[in-house]
From TrEMBL:
<keyword id="KW-0094">Blood coagulation</keyword>
<keyword id="KW-0356">Hemostasis</keyword>
<keyword id="KW-0449">Lipoprotein</keyword>
<feature type="domain" description="Fibronectin type-III">
    <location>
        <begin position="3"/>
        <end position="79"/>
    </location>
</feature>
<keyword id="KW-0472">Membrane</keyword>
<comment type="subunit">
    <text>Interacts with HSPE; the interaction, inhibited by heparin, promotes the generation of activated factor X and activates coagulation in the presence of activated factor VII.</text>
</comment>
<keyword id="KW-0325">Glycoprotein</keyword>
<keyword id="KW-1133">Transmembrane helix</keyword>
<dbReference type="InterPro" id="IPR003961">
    <property type="entry name" value="FN3_dom"/>
</dbReference>
<dbReference type="GO" id="GO:0007596">
    <property type="term" value="P:blood coagulation"/>
</dbReference>
<keyword id="KW-0564">Palmitate</keyword>
<dbReference type="InterPro" id="IPR001187">
    <property type="entry name" value="Tissue_factor"/>
</dbReference>
<dbReference type="InterPro" id="IPR050650">
    <property type="entry name" value="Type-II_Cytokine-TF_Rcpt"/>
</dbReference>
<dbReference type="Pfam" id="PF09294">
    <property type="entry name" value="Interfer-bind"/>
</dbReference>
<dbReference type="GO" id="GO:0005886">
    <property type="term" value="C:plasma membrane"/>
</dbReference>
<comment type="similarity">
    <text>Belongs to the tissue factor family.</text>
</comment>
<dbReference type="InterPro" id="IPR036116">
    <property type="entry name" value="FN3_sf"/>
</dbReference>
Length: 161
């Protein structure tokens, strides 16, 4: 590889409802980045090959959400991609989507109140992942019984509602 190429720094994972973006610095000049995602039990997958960007959407290669991943961000020149020497790279912190994605708030579809009983129906946030029929999976489809909501409500002093 070319030891003179700068390697990525300040590597961060940003994940909301399993949509996951990897970001880093600095902006490349005269070289490119290629991202390799390594799972503990899965093959290495390449994303954002020869990119001049400093972010990469890696959602589709993190489908096994309980897997723990690391990213290698390779600094390469376009001619080096056919070279068998390993280019300089930086390694991210580990990331496990199931534990580390940030969950967006659910929507309240509707609610009814009968006496002192309040019934609230939630719409779970959707994820970028799809079922075989093409419909999007919700966070409940992924978390199943591990997902629960806490609902806080209070009585309006003036109206009593």
């Amino acid at each position: 590889g070319n030891p003179d190429l700068p390697t990525a720094v300040n590597i961060t994972w940003s994940s909301i409802n399993f949509k996951t973006i990897l970001q880093w610095q600095p902006k490349p000049s005269g070289y490119f980045y290629t991202v390799e995602i390594n799972g503990m039990t899965s093959d290495t997958k390449r994303k954002c090959i020869l990119t001049a960007e400093t972010e990469c959407d890696v959602t589709d290669v993190l489908r096994n959400v309980k897997e723990t991943y690391t990213a290698h961000i390779l600094s390469v020149t376009s001619s080096e991609m056919d070279n068998f020497e390993e280019p300089p790279f930086a390694v991210s912190e580990q990331f496990t989507p199931y534990n580390q994605t940030v969950l967006g708030k659910p929507e309240i579809k509707n609610y009814t109140q009968k006496g002192s009983k309040l019934n609230v129906v939630f719409q779970d946030p959707l994820t970028p992942y799809t079922f075989p029929n093409g419909s999007f999976q919700s966070i409940r489809d992924i978390f199943q019984h591990d997902l629960e909501y806490k609902l806080y409500y209070w009585k309006d002093q003036s109206s009593g509602k």
